[in-house]
Amino acid sequence: MARPVFVVGMHRSGTSMVAGILAHLGIPMGHNLTAADWSNPYGHYEDKQFTAINRDGLRAAGGDWRHPPLPWAISGAGMASRAREYIARREEDIGKDAYWGAKDPRMALTLHVWLPLLGGARWIIVRRPLNEICASLAKRNQMPESEAIELWAHYIAAISLGLIDESEADVCVAHYKEITGEPRQGVERLAEWLGVPCTEEAIQHVRRKQ
């Protein structure tokens, strides 16, 4: 059975870098990826259909990534059927026992919708120092530090409730500073956890971020 691996974390925490590592380790991250731009010159590695499901679910619940709605409102936003169809489509494209991946920071807020549909999934939680996240959000979104801290706390709590407290979840925590500080060791650790060969392409992807 095909096995999904998801990258979750706060916006600007390094989720794109980690998703790029997966892509360069040979894990398909989607059919139609969001193009690189000034805020992420080395790529977002986000499947547009996947992000649309999360974005539309938040919007239908009266919020967005910056204004998280209440979980019960998201649960009633009709996401599950679209999520189920997405999973089925991705699994059809992948051979038996192979990985497929997806990444979207918004998923932190919609985990409770996805989790019941994803038996056997693996999860990479990305961590980065809060001061660096705040600085990046100020640059990209002109977000005040107080708002960034409050939003970060909301995302971390949502991930913790969804995954860390889920006894059967297969979770790896990836620290942005550790991976960028020692790219080879960081990539090798992720590759070993996934059980896939390490590649020089994945290591070079991290080194471009330094």
- Rg over alpha carbons: 16 Å
Task: Assess the beta-strand content as a share of residues.
Answer: 5-15%
Domain unit count: 1
Q: Which architecture per CATH?
A: 3-Layer(aba) Sandwich
Q: How many helices?
A: 10
DSSP helix fraction:
40-55%
Assign the CATH superfamily.
Answer: P-loop containing nucleotide triphosphate hydrolases
Order of helices and strands: EHHHHEHEHHEHHH
- Described by the principal axes of the CA atoms, the overall outline is globular
Mean pLDDT: 93
Count of beta strands = 4
**Head-to-tail CA distance between termini:** 37 Å
Descriptive labels:
alpha/beta; globular; single chain; 10 helices; Rossmann fold; 210 residues; four-stranded parallel β-sheet
Summarize the structure.
Helix content is 52%, strand content 11%. By secondary structure, it is an alpha/beta fold.
